[in-house]
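Need tokens for this chain, all 231 residues.
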Amino acid sequence: MRELRVPAEVLRSLCVFIFDLDGTLIDSKLDLARAVNATRAQFALPPLPHEQIYSYVGHGAEILIRRSLGEETAEEVVESALQFFLTYYRAHMLDTTVPYPGVPEGLAALAGNDRILTVLTNKPVRFSTDILKGLGLAHYFHRIYGGNSFPRKKPDPMGVEIILQEVAATPQQTLVVGDSEIDVATGRNAGTWTCGVTYGLGSHRLADSPPDLLVDSLIELAAFVCPVYPR
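Here are the structure tokens for all 231 residues:
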């Protein structure tokens, strides 16, 4: 049995859940990789291995493109490439992207009993909202916030702090759920509880940044939080 760093009674009293998007709710890696390599092709660059691109995901579109082109790339080229990437990705962001197994069922279970579900991602908010709408998941969330919703991105706690102000909740009532060390650091910086998922893009890095709870699916998370939900 996995070590639980959050008491069971606390899990059952949580009322705010703040989810990461890519690697946590949705498997978007192939669409992202294809968009990055389409961008590189536009600038006469050869494609990168998908696994290399996946390692760049999590810090927002600008850093994804900057790393994909190389840190030495001129600023004006990065800006032009970013605009191409955003246009291309918007047209193809639902080509292969799907919810991870157990996400719809887990969200449905967690959404009851006055719990507030939100999304806080470093992906642009327009893309995030449209993807969740396209996958039929947007209605579960009180708010969807992206990397351009606030002056500072995760792991800065600003987004979490603003969400908690909006819903009048405390960090102790809140669980940040994500697949990477970025999400764990975000929760730690905001003073919330943290939950990692084992299946996402950054989940292999959680061993160095262990969350309070680690689950294989949102169904498993729902079983911890909802006493009547079967585990």
